[in-house]
Amino acid sequence: MESKTTRKRNALVLALVLILAGYAVYQSLHKKHQEEAALAAERGLGANTAAPGFTLKGLDGQTYTAGGERDKPMMINFWASWCGPCVEEAPDLVKVYEKYKDQFDLYAVNVTPGDKMDNIRKFVQDNGYSFPVLLDEQGTVAEQYRFIVIPTSFLVDKHGVIREVINVLPADQLEAKIKKLIAS
């Protein structure tokens, strides 16, 4: 028969092992996303390249255009409603946009061919998106940007030049990158 002390010690050891395993999985996934972003950059759309221009209809019915010179820098975030990491980053996108919306634009481009309109609307509503949600209905903009995974975001300066390609980041790192973009 196990003593109470032995059971407590075993429970603590098990809890510690689970915490460490969870952290290892998180680190592995984070590294994989960073490697995929670097690979996407190697394929042609990385830092210091011109962001492809596009015009898309938004979920709000308006038409939005990106590319070339702008008044403010922008973040172009490619996402889908079924994407787990997109759900993970949504609250941070909302927070950073609300804090800096006068200093940068954020276009959330839904990769619509692989999504459903009802799911898109629910995702936007559930996450409180107040920035434009654009619909890439034919997938042509996604093809132009040549990314590998979603979510992928392109940080574009006022001159239409991609400054960085990112995937899901912790909130403080995302904010630091947006502040750097605004200052560029």
TrEMBL record:
SUPFAM superfamilies the UniProt entry points to: Thioredoxin-like
Pfam families linked: AhpC-TSA (PF00578)
MF-aspect GO terms: antioxidant activity; oxidoreductase activity
Domain of life: Bacteria
Keyword tags: Disulfide bond
InterPro entries: AhpC/TSA, Thioredoxin-like_sf, Thioredoxin_CS, Thioredoxin_domain, Thioredoxin_ResA/DsbE_sf
PROSITE patterns, sorted: THIOREDOXIN_1, THIOREDOXIN_2
The Thioredoxin domain, residue ranges: 45-183
Protein name, UniProt field: Thioredoxin
Organism encoding this protein: Paenibacillus athensensis
